[in-house]
Amino acid sequence: MELSASIAEARWNVCCNCNRKGDLLWKVAQPNGQRPKRLLRTDSQCVKIKINHLICLYWGVDGMPRVAYSEEERERIRVALVRVGLDLMTKQGIQHTTVEQIYRRVGISRTFFYSFFPTKEDLIVETLYLQQPKIVAYARKLMADPALSWRDGVRQFLHACCYGEKNGIAVLTIEEQQLIFKRLSKESYQMFREKQARLFGTILESFGIRANRANISLFTNLSLTVMVIRRAIPDTLPLFVPEAADETVEFQINAIADALEILKEQD
Q: Which pLDDT score, from 0 to 100, does residue 14 have?
């Protein structure tokens, strides 16, 4: 979506209103294939000209045009940035995804990108928020599947999260966690922890387990441990045996399922 293409061209022409020569006219592309509208620049003051494409043209004191987006358009761009970021991060990893890749795919400039997100880390956190409803929906779908036992549903859910790159789920490595949360503000970090707790609590409830603070904390640590270890072998944890990585993950998933089953029976 190349929003800047809404401005088709600028050229010197005859004013369509007063027939004066020498004024700079802009031809702005209209939706639905309509004929481009010609707009007149007036030199006496800074002028805001509304058009039908949710974009406004501003003329500055230097005579150069400025493009301002409506709140609705800005929100669409923001959502597009988060969605593209999540797509790239799940496919190629967070460390290998650059800000340039994201804003180029959306079709905006680097400067405009930073008007939405002060840092790359702020965008990464938003991508993690974006995928939370998808994760919850997947857990509920497994629990509602009559072909799966409760235990098989839990195991399949944890397996999909551990191998997130194959299932469109972004999982932070140890290094990524350290880098991101070192740069987040205290308020952003606190908000993330609260949303994370709500996420794991909702998943527990979908498993039929009471989501009290103790259960949420245990489930969060157990789940993240197996996900992080799977991503860390062998690069971050070189003393681990990579040939046994998958078997290690399966063992841990079964152990988590055992622990959750005990909690479920207690409830």
A: 31
The pLDDT score that the predictor gives to residue 4 is 38
185-206 as b/e: b if 16+ CB within 10 A: eeebeeebeeebeebbbbbbbb
Three-state SS across the chain?
CCHHHHEEEEEEEECCCCCCEEEEEEEECCHHHCCCEEEECCCCCCCEEECCCCEEEEECCCCCEEEEECHHHHHHHHHHHHHHHHHHHHHHCCCCCCHHHHHHHHCCCHHHHCCCCCCHHHHHHHHHHHHHHHHHHHHHHHHHCCCCCHHHHHHHHHHHHHCHHHCCCCCCCHHHHHHHHHHCCHHHHHHHHHHHHHHHHHHHHHCCCCCCHHHHHHHHHHHHHHHHHHHHCCCCCCCCCHHHHHHHHHHHHHHHHHHHHHHHHHC
Distances (CA, A) of 201 to 151, 169, 196, 225, 259: 18, 18, 8, 17, 16
Q: What pLDDT does residue 227 have?
A: 95
Q: Is residue 90 within 8 Å of 164, Cβ to Cβ?
A: yes
Here the tokens at position 204 are 């527990």
Q: What pLDDT was estimated at residue 129?
A: 95
Please identify every stretch of the chain with a pLDDT value under 70, giving residue numbers as ranges.
Answer: 1-68
Report pLDDT digits (tens) over 18-28. 333 333 333 44
Q: Which residue has the tokens 């996900």?
A: 227
